Amino acid sequence: MRLYTHMSSTTLSSSAADTALDETNDDQFNVVLRIRPLNGLELNRKDTFTVDLPGEGHVAIETNGSSRNFTFNAVFEPDASQEELFDNCGITRLVDMALSGYACTALAFGQTGSGKTHTMTGPPSQPSTPVFNGEFQEGKSPDLDMIGLIQRSFKYLFQQMKDVGESKVVRASYLEIYNEQVIDLLNPAHKRYLSVRWSKNKGFYVENLFTIECNSMDDLSAVLEEGELKCCIFK
Ligand SMILES: Nc1ncnc2c1ncn2[C@@H]1O[C@H](COP(=O)(O)OP(=O)(O)OP(=O)(O)O)[C@@H](O)[C@H]1O
């Protein structure tokens, strides 16, 4: 895998790239592009890539004989692994910043089938709660390599708190915005749609959103699993 970043004039290997976004970049926003491999349908149709990767975060897309250029903080090629993405996309910096008291958001954006779920939580067959005992337990799940950014961030978060030795309170909530309605996925008994409010002290917040205190990676993973389950039911 190669990572192209405009933070550095060099094309970085995955092993050398992990600090590129973190240490040289103080942007408030990082936009990272992941290009997924062609799927079975596309291969059967004999689709080909129309994306050219000249390096340094640039992407050129060929359409109707002309080329349009875009620039990102980093670009991941189709063969990038879940681990490479986690190590190099800058999300560890977000967790570090959250631990320093900043409000941080990781947002996956793309058309249907572009790989948002795959990137954030891993493919659907992937258990969202890998057995965790300081380390993910290799061998308990055949797809452990496929776990996504969310579970890897959980592990990183608790590891960082342990390393720094500071006691922090971790609270989790899980909501879905569907047809512009806010649904609490941890409290489905709460049938009503929730309201988004604003106050001077809190800024924007979701009123009556169920929040759970999580003392361990397992607690946090259970929240993810519960929310994913309800998410499917609501759909
Ligand atoms: N980087 C990747 N490597 C291999 N397969 C991928 C990759 N990204 C996505 N896929 C596969 O492509 C399919 C669609 O991906 P996914 O469900 O993550 O898309 P999505 O953006 O979440 O779609 P939707 O918005 O419809 O929920 C899945 O089968 C997924 O496993």
From TrEMBL:
All residue ranges annotated as the Kinesin motor domain in the record? 28-235
The subcellular localization recorded is: Cytoplasm, Cytoskeleton
> Keywords, A to Z?
ATP-binding, Cytoplasm, Cytoskeleton, Motor protein, Nucleotide-binding
Superkingdom classification of source? Eukaryota
Answer yes or no on keyword Nucleotide-binding: yes
**Record flagged with keyword Ribosomal protein:** no
Q: Which InterPro entries match?
A: Kinesin-like_fam, Kinesin_motor_dom, Kinesin_motor_dom_sf, P-loop_NTPase
Q: Name one GO biological process term.
A: mitotic spindle organization
Give binding positions for ATP.
G110, Q111, T112, G113, S114, G115, K116, T117
Q: Which GO terms describe its cellular component?
A: microtubule associated complex
Q: Name one GO molecular function term.
A: microtubule motor activity
Similarity annotation:
Belongs to the TRAFAC class myosin-kinesin ATPase superfamily. Kinesin family.
How is this protein named in the record?
A: Kinesin motor domain-containing protein
Organism, by scientific name, is Patella caerulea (Rayed Mediterranean limpet)
